[in-house]
């Protein structure tokens, strides 16, 4: 039986490498559609939890994980020799930036090196990690060919960008259309057939490079528009105009306008990172990405602008930021998730500490700040009580979790700097609120 027949009959074994925010939901979709699966991760803690039917990601329900485990169609492992037991391998590993804001594809290349020792003839390898156009063909395939096998003959490669939006109430892994691209007709048939079994709609494109560029465009679009409203926020703040009121009024136009909202900076695993992947790749073709880079400059500056607003607000209270006690609310990169990746909260804390402030944080979903790619801030979440709020010179709203009681917070805080318009409906004590 060839691989296409295996996929269509659901007899193909699916391997997912990287069991994080992207890989785990995807793997569970395959299990729920009746595929045998193997989940690979180097983190033994994750492997043990999954095999015990436990979730380590807040928005992924533990009962669902347990149900998947109980089907006996799934097993997690850190034994990569078992790659040979799979038919289709989906790579879902991080693609961060270096400290010089250049692509760090070491997770992809290291994974490919491991796979090259264990792959066999007849397998399909799909890269899902966001990256620059050409990675699948120019990086992944040559490393896999160290196995002695030849790509597009002995095995096939494809690219299908992840489109996860954690905790989105409207869309999930299964209901978000899946772009798939490959550079041979048979590989394209394989990857379309594979994802059609678990995703409501597949969107085939002509090459892996096209699929890679699609993901970058999606997030560059968001980055540029967020930069635009962030710049509008800074301009309108100087004019004494509320940018949130302006956006809400503009959003009533039924055509030609799509609302984007400002914030303290970009966060998450895609939007702050993906634009720089295209910027870096464009240099190979002697092209400058001035529009994209300008958006990056604006968004990168936002934490500094927010801290300057804190300085001005404290000054109005005859206080200096040096020596002031500041409580930051929300360490996650967006509301109601426990994901701190690239969260602007870390940069805000760093800047305030550098300026001599005493900084604490509260986040009910992140009890302790984890070590991050560029930060190692050792702090634990403080309790949000009336007494605690009152002792801080300023409370900074960085992430607007739904569990926060904004009336309570504003009532007991001395000063609130709000970067998310979270306090829009607070009626009492509005003289304490500064928008940033």
Strand and helix order: HEHEHHEEHEHEEHEHHHHEHEHEHEE
Share of residues in strands:
5-15%
Enumerate how many helices there are, as a single number.
Answer: 14
The CATH homologous superfamily of the largest domain is named NAD(P)-binding Rossmann-like Domain
CATH-defined topology of the largest domain: Rossmann fold
Largest sheet: 6 strands, parallel
* Strand arrangement in the largest pleated sheet: 3-2-1-4-5-6
Task: Look at the structure and give the mean pLDDT.
Answer: 95
Portion in helices: 25-40%
| CATH class category label of the largest domain | Alpha Beta
Query: Segments where pLDDT lies below 50 for 5+ residues?
Result: none
Q: In CATH terms, what is the architecture of the largest domain?
A: 3-Layer(aba) Sandwich
First-last Cα distance: 61 Å
Gyration radius, in Å: 24 Å
Describe this structure in words.
The chain has helices at residues 3-8, 23-32, 44-51, 62-70, 106-116, 135-144, 185-196, 208-239, 243-250, 274-283, 290-316, 344-354, 386-390, 406-412, and strands at 14-17, 37-40, 74-77, 88-91, 124-127, 156-159, 178-181, 202-205, 325-329, 358-362, 394-397, 416-418, 433-435. With 436 residues, it is α/β, with parallel strands linked by helices. It folds into 2 domains: 3-206, Rossmann fold, CATH 3.40.50; 222-435, NAD(P)-binding Rossmann-like Domain (Rossmann fold, 3-Layer(aba) Sandwich). The strands form 3 sheets. Strands 3-2-1-4-5-6 form a 6-stranded parallel β-sheet, with helices on both faces. The longest helix has 32 residues, at 208-239. The radius of gyration is 24 Å and the shape is globular. The relative contact order is 0.08. The mean pLDDT is 95.
